[in-house]
Amino acid sequence: MNSERARRCLPVILTAAFLLPGCLEQETTTTIHPDGTCERVIVIRDDGPAFPQGIFPIAVDSSWDTTGVRVRDSGNQYQWTLTKRFRSYDDLAREYAGVGDTGKIHVEVRVEKRFRWFYTYFEYGETYARYSRFNLIPPSAVLNEEEILRYTYGDTSRVLKEKVEEWEARNLFEVLYAPMVRRAGELRDTVLASTLASHKEEFFRLLETAEKRDSFADSLLARFVPNASRKDLFHDGQITEAGVDAVTELAVQVCGTGSLRELKGELRAGWKASEAVLFDELGPEEKGETFTNTVVMPGIVLETGAPEVKGSTVSWKFERNRLSLHDYEMRVESRTVNVWAIVVTGILVLGLLAVVFAVPMFSMRRNTALTPSA
Amino acid sequence: MTCDQAREVIALTRPGETSETETRALTEHLGSCAPCTRLYRNALSLNEKIAALRAVEPVLEDPEGLVRSVMQIVDETHPAQRPTSRGRRASRLRGRDHDAVAPAAGFRTSRIAFAVAAAIIAVFLMQTTMDARKLAALELRLGRITVGTAVAGIVEPGQVLELIPRGEARDRLLAMLRSGALRTSLNDQGVRAYLESMSNAAGVPPALSSRSGLRLTVQVQDQAEIMKTIDSLLTKGGNAHEQ
């Protein structure tokens, strides 16, 4: 899951840590009651007994009923269940509005009830704000608006996936390359700065097209340090000093100028920084996160963008990386029938229809009765 | 001018209604005829009074009093046929006969009641229709799966079949399209697997679609690819969505 994502993020920066298996699964079920109250149940499955630290903001306080149990027959997997009943829809909205900048995703919940005599309409909206550490290159630099939305809402086409991979890779590369460009500016070396600018794309392509880090390491070994081994270049998931030397030589070869060796320190710093950004992007536990948001609405569902609708229950399921480009918006509208209003209206209409027919008849009869005496 | 002719001209003596010749002849005649002169003076006096009356605007000082007095006379004349207050108002405004007012008021009440009832029913129908539309759109969307980067447009089942070589799979697909059973033969898993295999094929359009609201937009590479995926598709079963 996330290891797959890590693999495609500029492969040469991939570290062994990303290959850890496991996935944080979070299921949120919100039940909207027609009386204005609602209930939210959050179920989280994770490996290990420690309370999971995903990016979804969860306020573990006394107002939430929290239980954590080990899942049978699933190794070391634990399931945490958090339940809270809200006295009003606004209380649910306030639960997340109050969460500050805690490094979690910003969640906005809106629930509205509209009484329209015959029917009562319920509208539920929840938005998970865009969450990504890749912020140097905006998604719009690589993808158009339609592609961004399609990817966000679950498009799995290969062409689109490749574009997103390119955007991620470009962001990582930007982190890696920026210290060198900055240093060249500080040195007031215009030739070096322009060399870096003109060979930037070439260098990026070289790193991006490396299928695996091992093969990249082999190619470096073969070209620059024939007497060393892979471990000498990348050790414990980190680039070594020899690895930095080899990549610097690669940069020198690409750019065609030996003055790049002066920027070896910046290359090292950039490489480390890009590793850190990738760690952050993949999450604190370097695992994937899957969100399932289920909403149980009162009445029948009229409108929703959810891919799955079963009766009055709508569900969205997506992985964390779907939040990297755009806000993820979930919306559903449902309707309940006000039977009492229909009965009252029926009686009223029948009364009016009685008036429609009875009054003229009565008037005409009275008029007919009066005419002879007149 | 004789006296008879003079009286005719005197009768027409208003500004602009007699010619200069007639006026001159009349003046000559009046100089020698005392009765015609008196008649002429009376005519002039009458014209002046009529002109004064024209300048006066009629003012009704006590309209309610007038109505009361009229109604009193009516009550005294036909006590049993006194109309309702609304009828009286109508009679005052329209000057209609009281006998016609009572049924008119009844019809008006009836019309108002009918309008209110119709408005209530219209609101109900409007709300229900709008909701039904939303529901239909949702059903359509849930039945339509659009995946892939190429949205090349919708083609008819016949065009789809042209992409598929003749054989058992094509016959089965044709039968399903004709019977409208294709929609219910797809389940989530089947569609996903189908589309996944389609989107894995690097290639160009076209789109593949069916009628009855189901739309499959996929990328296809060649006929063999279509055959393979159609074949796997036909082996799937179940409902796409429940609503």
Please render the helix and strand layout as text:
The complex is a heterodimer of chains A (374) and B (243).
Chain A: H1 2-8, E1 23-32, E2 38-47, E3 65-70, E4 77-86, H2 89-97, E5 107-116, E6 119-128, H3 145-152, H4 158-186, H5 190-208, H6 213-223, H7 230-233, E7 234-235, E8 238-239, H8 241-255, H9 264-282, E9 288-296, E10 300-304, E11 308-310, E12 313-319, E13 328-337, H10 339-370
Parallel strand pairs in A: 1-9
Antiparallel strand pairs in A: 1-2, 2-4, 3-4, 5-6, 6-13, 7-8, 9-12, 10-13, 11-12
Helix pairs in contact in A: 4-5, 4-9, 6-8
Chain B: H1 3-11, H2 20-30, H3 34-54, H4 63-77, H5 85-94, H6 98-143, E1 145-146, H7 157-163, H8 168-179, H9 188-200, E2 208-209, E3 215-217, H10 223-234
Parallel strand pairs in B: 1-3
Antiparallel strand pairs in B: 2-3
Helix pairs in contact in B: 1-2, 1-3, 5-6, 8-10, 9-10
Briefly summarize what is shown:
Chain A is of the alpha+beta class and 374 residues long. Chain A contains ten helices and 13 strands. Chain A has two domains: 183 residues, no CATH class; 124 residues, no CATH class.
3D architecture notes:
The complex is a heterodimer of chains A (374) and B (243). By secondary structure, chain A is α+β, with helices and mostly antiparallel strands. Chain A has helices at 2-8, 89-97, 145-152, 158-186, 190-208, 213-223, 230-233, 241-255, 264-282, 339-370, and strands at residues 23-32, 38-47, 65-70, 77-86, 107-116, 119-128, 234-235, 238-239, 288-296, 300-304, 308-310, 313-319, 328-337. Chain A contains 10 helices and 13 strands. In chain A, strands 3-4-2-1-9-12-11 form a 7-stranded mixed β-sheet. In chain A, strand 5 and strand 6 form a beta hairpin. In chain A, helix 4 packs antiparallel against helix 5 (190-208), helix 4 packs antiparallel against helix 9 and helix 6 (213-223) crosses helix 8 (241-255). Chain B is an all-alpha fold and 243 residues long. Among the domains of chain B are: 3-54, no CATH class; 145-234, no CATH class. Helix content of chain B is 64%, strand content 3%. Chain B contains 10 helices and 3 strands. The longest helix of chain B is centred in the middle third of the chain and has 46 residues, at 98-143. The N and C termini of chain B lie far apart (109 Å). The chains are: A alpha+beta (374), B mainly alpha (243). Chain A binds chain B through residues 116-119, 147, 150, 155-160, 300-304, 308-311, 333, 335, 342, 345, 348-349, 352-353, 355-357, 359-360, 362-364, 366-367, 370-371, 373-374, and chain B through 78, 80-81, 99, 102-103, 105-107, 109-110, 113-114, 116-117, 120-121, 123-124, 127-128, 131, 134-135, 137-138, 142, 147-149, 188, 196, 199-200, 202, 219, 241-243.
